[in-house]
């Protein structure tokens, strides 16, 4: 039970960022700066929570992540720069900017003062069962929020006009444009959503896990989220499955210190699994057809 | 061809414009925290003129030249090897094994063996993404990123196996010390004899010379050899190259492997010129800086040299700013990222502008 509870806690940030990745890539923009956006989210999450409490923390983090995403969108969509390169530069920028701001605002380079998170809740009724205690008590409200966001995301992508347009833009932007869809606007929306969600993932780390901002606290989770996007076959529901699996790996790796399997092996599993998926050994990876390809509006050079 | 002349002019101007644009934004940031950007950059310039700074700039440029050349080799033929990071980690670890594991060799032979081990390590780590790209169509950006993280875990695990057990449990985990035959000779004695006032403590070593030679050799290889011709044809137009009988996939596969082998050497200057052992604090992030260097150089192996020097200059300047002003050194990290953003946008606009010019000429 404690293992399962810890797996859920570790799943949430991966899942939020992966959900963001799905939106960005469904619109045709690869976002390897999820990590950087998450880092921005951790700083702004701490700042907001420090000044006005946890809700402001979540809000600041969302805006901070979206702010970095806006740069990604301007550079890759408007200017048509290679998305991988822009992502690499953004990750460097995020690391520099957060360190700079931490020094300016908190006086030290590597951490913020402690902040309090959301008030945890218990599931009424079940919280009396002793055996289930780790699972049904002290739950962060962000856990159900994340789950709702995933279900909402799945529905939006599958059923709504917006979702269909976003996917159309990611599959065939030229055809979408002839049908009257504003390709740039759709791609901007996808990228901004990814930044907002990755920022929220950062806020979760600050508000619900560490209770302060610590430099390097994302520890590559943004890249695990990228892996979850692929393993989840570019669908929110798939990303949910992948994130749960990866969260479980993480939880196990924290607990097998004494066992015969080195924890490094278990920590590597998400990456190994993703390579296997990409190589088609597990099942076919089918990214959106125009994923990663810059698009120029009709008649524009 | 009027457009050709303009293209050359723009190509030369774009990096300067990008550095300038980055500088303007960084100045705005410095102004925002109530400091004077002119005096900050002025201090950086005088600080970087000192002999100690020059040595430091050259030292930090050395791994960046390796990383930049490794990146450029891949990027030239549209192979996005984002895995330099993991490849050099594995390369450095393989080199350490050869460094403390092999004993009794004369220094030149031992060093050659170590460098070979580093290249094999990089090759080992790049082989899987290269193979999967060629045979299974797996996109190398994601596979190499994943390989980076696997590399860190693998090295951490193996380091635990070979760590120096004589240190006790209190000291940090590191490999046994390398023998003297595994130390790359420093350049300071030679440069002092030539009249350059490089301080004796500087870890600047012969890997700088090797890095410079490597950049030149790779440049010649791509310019003058048959394979280099095929690679450039692949870079310019893969479809046309394929039609002309060049096996584009094979060219990309070979360039991918070479990129990884060069990447294996990125950490050697630090490993053999400074530390003398491998530990868990071995520098990370050089691979990503290498990407920045290659972008600034437009994937030209020779251009990598000034680009790496610029980054070395900025890194040293950051230390000066940190020590002597109230501005945190992170301003320079931000500046570096901004330069990269500006340069890719500048190249993009430039390419588009030239295309428009060409169309007008035809019309």
Automatic annotation (TrEMBL), chain A:
Give yes or no: UniProt keyword Membrane: yes
Main location, first listed in the record: membrane
GO CC, sorted alphabetically, is: plasma membrane
**Transmembrane as UniProt keyword:** yes
Write down the membrane topology: Multi-pass membrane protein
InterPro entries per UniProt = ABC_transp_permease
Enumerate the UniProt keywords alphabetically: Cell membrane, Membrane, Transmembrane, Transmembrane helix
Q: Which Pfam families match?
A: BPD_transp_2
Which GO molecular function terms does the record list?
transmembrane transporter activity
Localization: Cell membrane
Q: Enumerate the transmembrane spans.
A: 6-23, 30-51, 57-81, 88-109, 129-157, 188-207, 219-249, 261-282
Q: Which PANTHER family match?
A: GUANOSINE ABC TRANSPORTER PERMEASE PROTEIN NUPQ, SUGAR ABC TRANSPORTER INTEGRAL MEMBRANE PROTEIN-RELATED
| Record protein name field | ABC transporter permease
Species of the source:
Candidatus Segetimicrobium genomatis
Question: What are the leading ranks of the lineage?
Answer: Bacteria, Bacillati, Candidatus Sysuimicrobiota, Candidatus Sysuimicrobiia, Candidatus Sysuimicrobiales
TrEMBL record, chain B:
Would I find Acyltransferase among this entry's keywords?
A: no
What's the main place this protein lives? membrane
Q: Which GO terms describe its molecular function?
A: transmembrane transporter activity
- Known Pfam families for this protein? BPD_transp_2 (PF02653)
Report which superkingdom the organism of origin falls in.
Bacteria
* Residue stretches spanning the membrane: 7-33, 53-75, 87-105, 111-132, 144-162, 204-222, 253-273, 331-350
Which InterPro entries does the UniProt entry name for this protein? ABC_transp_permease
As for subcellular location, the record says:
Cell membrane
Is Transmembrane there in the keyword field?
yes
Task: Give the record's keywords alphabetically.
Answer: Cell membrane, Membrane, Transmembrane, Transmembrane helix
Instruction: Read off the PANTHER family from this record.
Output: ABC TRANSPORTER, PERMEASE PROTEIN (PTHR47089), GUANOSINE ABC TRANSPORTER PERMEASE PROTEIN NUPP (PTHR47089:SF1)
Task: Report what the protein is called.
Answer: ABC transporter permease
Source species, please? Candidatus Segetimicrobium genomatis
